[in-house]
Design brief:
Layout lengths: L1 H16 L2 H33 L9 E6 L17 E2 H10 L3 E17 L2 E10 L11 E4 L4 H5 L4 E5 H7 L10 E4 L2 E9 L14 E5 H7 L5 E2 L1 E6 L5 H16 L9 E5 H44 L1 H9 L4 H37 L1 E2 L2 E2 L7 H27 L3 H7 L1
Parallel strand pairs: 4-9, 6-8
Antiparallel strand pairs: 1-11, 1-12, 2-10, 3-4, 3-7, 3-11, 5-8, 6-9, 7-8, 13-14
Helix pairs in contact: 1-10, 2-8, 2-10, 3-7, 8-10, 8-11, 9-12, 10-11
Length: 415
């Protein structure tokens, strides 16, 4: 039995190598189809992850409320009136809208310069409360985040963004315990946040220095004002269902038309995340459509070439039938040739695609942190292999049926 299998394998290789150019070009069709499918799926996953890093850490059920000049007259006030939110608005939202889980204010100061020893870099100073962590999750590389004790004891502490840390501490290492100076005020560094989301909430995370909100109110003489109020909804509550309610609560306190959507801007991240998911659902559909179409084209090419091969081997197949080969022997021989050709070309396509995806993944890695994983999971790879085997069988089925129908007499007559 073993001898028969080895001989059969050698016979298949001999048949495929008789016309190397034709075999190569046929296999290349399958190779390219599999490569396109795997590369598009892996690349699509990587691009989705890369895009999602722009929103990394942000709660998907969050919203940001901030004031802008009014666009509608109301209660005797003309449109175009400027106004500011105050800390009492945080309390109003908490008490009037029970659907909210987190309500936390944000203060910002642009154009600041952070100094450490002889190093200097521009930064955005943000005043936050510890519960802001429920809105934007930090990625602590060193140290810790702001906590309640920092607020209660009025500690002059700060958390550095990734870019600020690299500019002030080019040699690396743990900066916790070091002091930096911003606008003539010294702060103790307690942590480094490596979050790299690109949602510009009054300044990017990478270029920000975070300090306690109460400390910022005093340091920059901001009084009770609040620049942004960030909120998250309780589980099961959609942010869009309470947007108008939030706007009404703030509008009534500041005598603004509750329908003035620009005067009281509510930026709903829920809508943004939904758009991204819908976008990549469409992209995934196109990826599979193009990949499978290319793969099927390659399989059709294999089938056509196998048909030509059967036609060329009419006499050989007739002689086999004359000396006792059964139709099943002929069927298995042709299908085996088709499966081997498809499998070798397809596996080569998978390996090449994985290699290219690995290069893309290495290119997106910085400081040992991979921004996006341009790879396919094991189930996709296993599915691709199973699909190759099925395509090999299907591609060889028609030529094999033709070969089974060849009679010895017709073969001799053809000769």
């Amino acid at each position: 039995m073993t001898r028969f299998d080895i001989d059969r394998f050698h016979e298949i290789l001999d048949t495929l190598s008789r016309n190397k150019s034709r075999t190569f070009l046929t296999g290349f069709g399958v190779f390219w189809g599999v490569f396109m499918l795997v590369a598009l799926v892996g690349g699509g996953n990587g691009l989705k992850e890369l895009l999602q890093t722009n929103f990394e850490g942000f709660a998907t059920n969050s919203a940001f409320i901030f004031p802008q000049p009014t666009t509608k007259p109301y209660a005797g006030f003309r449109k175009g009136r400027t106004w500011s939110m105050v800390y009492k608005d945080v309390k109003r939202l908490k008490s009037h809208i029970p659907e909210l889980q987190t309500v936390t204010p944000v203060l910002s100061h642009w154009g600041g310069n952070a100094i450490h020893d002889d190093k200097k870099t521009g930064c955005t100073v943000k005043g936050l409360l510890p519960d802001y962590i429920k809105v934007e999750t930090p990625k602590m590389f060193y140290g810790r985040y702001l906590n309640d004790m920092d607020i209660q004891q009025g500690r002059k502490v700060c958390v550095l963004g990734k870019k600020v840390y690299k500019e002030l501490f080019p040699g690396g290492g743990n900066p916790c315990g070091s002091k930096i100076c911003i606008d003539n005020i010294y702060y103790n560094v307690v942590g480094v946040d490596y979050a790299s989301g690109n949602i510009n909430l009054n300044g990017r995370s990478e270029t920000s220095v975070l300090i306690p909100l109460t400390l910022m109110q005093q340091a920059y003489n901001l009084g009770d004002s609040v620049h942004i109020i960030c909120v998250t909804a309780k589980p099961g509550i959609t942010m869009s269902s309470i947007t108008e309610k939030m706007r009404t609560v703030v509008a009534e306190a500041h005598r603004i038309d509750p329908t003035d959507e620009k005067g009281i801007t509510v930026f709903n991240t829920e809508v943004m995340f939904g758009l991204v998911d819908n976008l990549f659902s469409g992209v995934n559909f196109l990826v599979w459509l193009v990949g499978l179409g290319t793969l099927l084209a390659g399989a059709v090419g294999v089938s056509n070439i196998m048909m030509v091969t059967v036609r060329e081997r009419t006499t050989e197949i007739g002689i086999r039938r004359a000396i006792g080969a059964t139709p099943l022997n002929i069927l298995s021989q042709i299908i085996s040739e088709s499966v081997i050709l498809t499998a070798v070309a397809g596996m080569s396509g998978i390996l090449f695609a994985v290699f290219i995806l690995e290069m893309l993944e290495l290119g997106s890695t910085s400081d040992g942190i991979t921004a996006a994983h341009f790879q396919i999971d094991i189930s996709t790879a296993a599915g691709a292999v199973a699909m190759l085997c099925m395509l090999g069988i299907v591609a060889g089925l028609a030529p094999a049926m033709r070969a089974m129908g060849i009679k010895p007499v017709d073969a001799m007559r053809d000769e």
